[in-house]
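Lab notes, practical 5.
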Amino acid sequence: MIVRILRVFSTVFALLFVVPAVAVSAAPPAGRILFDVHYGSQGFKVGEARHVWKYDGVQYELSLTLEAKGLAGLFGLEYAQRSTGTRDGNGLKPELFSVEQRGRKPESALFDWSQGRVSVRRDGQERKSGTIRAGDQDVLSLWHQARRVAERGEAVHLTVVTNKSIKQAKLEPAGTERLKLAMGEVDTVRVHAWAEQGELDINIWLSPRHGMLPVRIRIEDEKGGVLDQRAVRVELGVAAQKPEKN
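Output from the prediction step:
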């Protein structure tokens, strides 16, 4: 009898710590998310960001534009990221990731899937290269690829490419959470990405109500610097094609 009770208790205890797979609908084919951007451990608002995406058949386009306000613009916090590529059975398949930052030379990562290589470049000159495999992502496409991990409820190992680095990382579901955002309370599934050798720590909160789109992204660098983007408004389909509201 005691053994049976212990087995039941163990089963219940285990279930409490399992992150269930989340049933989600297909990602909206186009849209726009507006974010407030907070910086540092105190979470001071330093600007606004606009994320736009479009899925056209097997092609995809993603962009993120961060506009700093006040003194924040003097510290290089204004930039534009862009990721383009295709979609297949492994999700998003980046071909080009690029970054333009005020006062700096353009940087990019070029994915050559036929050779299984990625080339990180600055002003057109290669600075480093590495091996890539199916499922690997750039740091922006990761926002949308995270929904696959949340849907399956299982961690994956992958390479995450930025405009400066090529990191081996783990992407794993990290539970559910209700967020209080400027657009109201939102139930979310959090996915955590972290580099196996440090220098990359990203938490992505996905909203099932919005097709598992990212409504908060918190990035912490190896020096403890924090960039926290929190959704103010999510616009889908036709609404995203209209001029932005002030």
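Observations recorded by the TA: The chain has a mean pLDDT of 85. The chain has one domain: 30-240.
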